Amino acid sequence: MSERAGALRASGRLFRIAGLAAVTLARTGARSLRPGAPDRRRAAAALIARASRTALSIHHLEVESAGPRPVGPALLVSNHLSYLDPLVVATCVDCLPISKSDLASWPIFGTVARRTGVLFVERSSPSSRIAVMRESERALRDGALLLNFPEGTTTDGSTVLRFRKGLFGVARELKVPVVPLALSYEPRELAWIGDDTFLPHYLRFSAIESSRARIAFGEPIDSRAHATPEDLATAAHARTLALLEERPAWLRKAR
Fold this sequence. Notes:
This protein is an alpha/beta fold. The protein has helices spanning 3-28, 38-58, 85-90, 109-116, 126-141, 168-174, 198-207, 229-245, 249-254; strands at 61-66, 74-78, 96-100, 119-121, 145-148, 178-186, 211-217.
């Protein structure tokens, strides 16, 4: 790929993404879709899914999925590789993602995320964590699929970090299932880790002609079968790691 071709591709896609953001914001109406009754949550999840499919199509990122598609209410837990992860999952199931508060200030993406119902958590703030837990409980009671990344940070995909107990306690209290899932990318450079800042990484991603993501859904875990949130988190971590190790042929060749 020549640098000129990549730059032209990236600029064209950025223009189209800006247009998608404008359309998505218009569809939210005058107010954010975040608060409110079950019908508003369903509308928010559906809008996120629609925008995610279009965004990944613009970037020629093909999503391959395996395993049973979950239905709500359920807590989805995944390994975490990139800011692309919620979009990839949302192409397969209508869900409400939980994201680090940093995303809220990002250009284009942050504005759309705030208006479409993404839940933001500042992990260093106890009050923020409590507020997100309460909002998550309401969403699950309303029948939503809630997407969480309990590692708390991104990795290169070679393993899965320990899961924080966080929302596993909410899942146990509400007796909703926990659905483990595992994400992989080709090329692996799509992982967003270390000191990488968002815009340079996004421009490199946008310059790639095409890419692939794989999402593997596991069988739901009965939250009632585990005595503590820690036990439930450990069980979900083991399932996610097992799913990650069941790599498709195209990903094994890329390593």
